[in-house]
Amino acid sequence: MNLSVSPIGKVVLIGFMGTGKSSVSRLLAERLEWSCADTDEEVVRAEGRSISDIFADDGEGAFRDMESRELSKLLEAPEHAVIATGGGAVLREENRSAMLKHGFVVTLSCDPEKIIARVLLDKSRPLLKGAVRERVYGLLEARKGAYDFAHLTVDTTELSVDEVVDRIVMAWKQHSALP
Ligand SMILES: Nc1ncnc2c1ncn2[C@@H]1O[C@H](COP(=O)(O)OP(=O)(O)OP(=O)(O)O)[C@@H](O)[C@H]1O
Ligand SMILES: O=C(O)C1=C[C@@H](O)[C@@H](O)[C@H](O)C1
Ligand SMILES: [Mg+2]
Is the ipTM of this complex over 0.95? Predict the structure, then answer.
């Protein structure tokens, strides 16, 4: 697998729901003085509907097509950016290779119990509707290894958003200084 990074810097955050991609992306972008985007937000904006409504009206496959389209637009934009992705964006090979082609890819991971605590109050994730605990464990099992292709993995379980950002900035600086 080619792990070199495109000269136009993009940091791409991947990881399971609730690992902090959206939160970390905003602070990381501020730190780097780059712009910040989120594929979930881009899909919602393009469609004028919530993710739950898209899943209910058109199904997950249609959402995945929209997600791939918005991801590809963000990755190909000619500017530095931090890109937060939806938790399932890694499921398509075309998305994984586009991320690696255009960006420094960072997986945020987290202990399942902490993930459950983080997502419990937020009802906006259609894949977690109903029995949240069972769904989180089931999806984590189904997605075992799916986030392992990144340049860097940060376990966020015991870290604040600020500390997660520190680690990414340090690794990005080292990586981008490589010849
Ligand atoms: N390091 C952290 N420590 C404590 N709470 C956190 C941390 N990171 C994120 N959170 C909280 O967890 C919740 C989920 O975070 P966030 O929405 O950023 O996750 P996400 O990875 O973008 O999820 P999704 O894939 O569903 O978009 C938010 O309430 C956020 O404030
Ligand atoms: O993990 C997933 O499949 C998802 C995560 C969210 O970010 C959204 O993209 C959507 O709720 C699906
Ligand atoms: Mg998010």
Answer: yes
CATH of domain 10-176: 3.40.50.300
Cβ(20) to ligand 2 under 6 A? no
Find out whether 6 and 12 touch, Cβ atoms under 8 Å: no
| Position 111, amino acid | D
Which residues have any ligand 1 atom within 6 Å of their CB? Answer: 15, 17-23, 40, 84, 86-87, 118, 125, 156, 159-161, 164
Task: Give yes or no for a contact between 169 and 13, defined as CB atoms under 8 angstroms apart.
Answer: no
Say how far apart CA 94 and CA 113 lie, in whole Å: 31
pLDDT of 119-176, one tens digit each? 987 878 888 888 899 999 999 999 999 999 999 999 999 999 999 999 999 999 888 8
Residue 9 φ/ψ region, left for φ over 0, alpha for ψ in the -120 to 50 degree band, beta for the rest: beta
Given its phi and psi angles, is residue 18 left (phi above 0), alpha (psi -120 to 50 degrees) or beta?
left
User: How many A from CA of 44 to the centre of ligand 2?
Assistant: 12
d(CA 28, CA 25) in angstroms, rounded, equals 5
As a residue count, the chain comes to: 179
